[in-house]
Specification:
322 residues, alpha+beta, 5-stranded mixed β-sheet, 16 strands, elongated
Length: 322
Amino acid sequence: MNGVIIVDKPAGWTSHDVVNRMRQILQQRSVGHLGTLDPLATGVLPLVTGSLTRLAQFYISSEKTYEGVIRFGFATNTYDADGEPSGEACPVTLTLQSLQEVAAKFLGVIKQVPPPFSAKKIQGVPAYKLARKQKEVILQPVSVEIKEFVITAVEADRAHFRARVASGTYMRSIAHEMGQRLGCGAHLESLRRTAVAEFDITHAHSIEKIEDQAKNCHSDRSAAEQLACPPISRRSLHPTEPQLSAGLETLFIHPRQLLPQFPSVTADEPTVARIRSGRPINLPELSRARQVKVFAGQRELLAIATRVAGTLFHPKIVFPAE
């Protein structure tokens, strides 16, 4: 099955844990994600399945939106609540106004040092592997962009926030640095991702919900169940893999909603044949577009085509039919 499904990642799971579980639920090996979430974090984790895993290249720089809580009074070695305290806790007195003033200093393009417990590599070795061995971790600052960072409420030693950031930004580092600026230490207590690119929390489903739906609709069900959940497509390049059923289909993002920055065109049968053979196509109505989504019918994403000259487009990526 080729598609994009949004998981509401539970706390305590790594992104790879979610991918592995979804491979089991969907009975499909070809599953990937569009950007990791720390184990502590919850929320929007977009997964791509089948040939649509090739869409990942278009989401590398996707904007992300978060809600969370920063706890002040002590820092931790991981910059979040999963780590060990870096020192003694100290009493703090916080006000909404003072924290809003500090938060405003993070807006825009800034230099940020990634957490030592991160996937950033030092001479080819992920920093977290060195940190776990208690080896010195020296990471260089990188440029990130904070588009929105608002402190929404303060409760004792905790501050609630909302943030919208460019790809590559660590909210753990922001929490840590806020503590440094205030001289009291701080760490990220909780984090929920509410949006990635065009996907938001309203699109997300719990793993339990997806599993329940899949149990009802896998292609190895009884004849009676097949009548209740007829398969959308009976074609497959991999006959051993299950077909996407009508019930499970409702949990996937409609293909027409993917990559909204690219215009869409529906190809007729001769054009479909040209695209499947890798030949260029003429799209005069989209002469100003750099890239377009080409569909065969309403749901089948056939290709991402790139304009090469005038109204001539070459299929950059062709997705095999299910």
